[in-house]
Amino acid sequence: MGNASPLTRRRSISSRRKVARPWYGRGMRRAGGDGSGRAVYLVAEHSGYNEGVRIVIPLFLIAASACSPPVSAPAEPKNLVILSIDTLRPDHLGLHGYSRPTSPHLDRFALDSVVFDQAVTVHVATAPAHGTILTGEYPGGHGIQRNGMALKPGIPTLAGILTERGFATGAFVSGWTLQRHTDLDRGFEIYDDDLGPPRNGARREGAQTTAAAVKWLRKQVAAERDFFLFVHLFEPHWPYDPPARDALRFLPGVYELTTVSKPVHLDRLLSVNRLTQAEQQEYVARYDGEIVVADRLADRLFEELEDLGVAHNTVVVVLSDHGETLFEREWTMDHGTRPYDEQARVPLILHVPGDPAAGKHVPDQVSLLDVVPTVFDIFDFESPEGLPGRSLLPLIRGERTEANPRPVFITARAEPQRVPHIKAQLLNRGLVRAIRLPEIKLIEYPVAGRRQQPELFNLIDDPGERDNRAGENIDIVVGLHGELAEWQNATGKAFDPGSQELDPEVEEALRELGYIDD
Ligand SMILES: [Zn+2]
Asked: Who surrounds ion ligand 1 at CB < 5 A?
């Protein structure tokens, strides 16, 4: 409830607005006028969240009525929506070429947005990744290094900074792992983590979460407040139990309705060898059916923005926290412990109304670290100092090429059961760490004797990460290991996931959800 830390307050108050607007001013100039009228141009050049806005807006209104720009004319961005769809693999979306029609609404939305084709998370579990989405820090920086942990004191949050700038800030989450024991409510005016009665492991139906978000949204618009809305949907997360009609559409004809609608009967974690081909198909269909549901709910939010008349000045970011291993590995239907690309890659779609780059696909590697700096750049707010990410706007505009792409560091929690191919003695709950460049990835599993077991993959020739080339490329392994070690040292002891003991109640709840197996 506006409980921003003193550090947050000091930083954001001392931050000042830069002089030139980076997005709309340039966009409009580059477009050479888009028929939306001079009034929009003037606003793009001169208005903002400083005192000036109060002077400029009446001018805009007068000019707008004289020029009669179309209702849909883009205006300066005033509001922000971040929609996080948990466990959503980008390669299961139509906009990334998936063969099944799982995401008709997001596909359409993507046509009017910028799509990042190679977005990567920083941790393959829910709470650490969301800590990054909402602070811009790596998990070692914000403190949530595995599910059940909390933000470090004093870490500035996106919500805290926007609240101080006068935004109405509301979050609506659907899973136990994001409830307020994480301190991710820090800075939000409203943090709705009421999941209702327990159902299939402490989660809320996305329809309910969306309805609560829409109700809140209507109030803010009626009160004429600028807003930051964060919505988290849990649908694609295990146990993959969409309405039967949404899964059945992807199943071969041999399936009966009862096959899909019966309660999930299998253990959460399964060896791929124990499942028949038909069972595997059924589970993928269930997973895809959940994406269909989430896609419909995303559209519900988009429609509401239109209906409330705020779509033209609302920035919308759609992303996920991590992907999911389906049947690529021996251990199936799972995430959190293995930073392979099916878990590490995420969708990232950025919609800025009136963006001349809309429809563009950006091929470069980017990460969830970049979301916060990009948002601050779009709104022309100064970022908190020292964030490891960077604004994606120059990349979108083609002003920067990635001749020397930055690595993304990805972490996970070691669990011997889930990586049976690691023959050395894996340190249970130790830190799995990876360094990913667009063409290559080094993964280091922690094993006995304070050593690391390396896996090196060529992501171009071997995107499925099947062929470990570490043994024949020792020099590359050593070089990337050095970068990993340097990165970890920069964050110091913060990177010991065992350094923060879990509250027993939290640990018990996580065990019930299947996050802790011992
Ligand atoms: Zn998640």
From this structure: 86, 126, 321
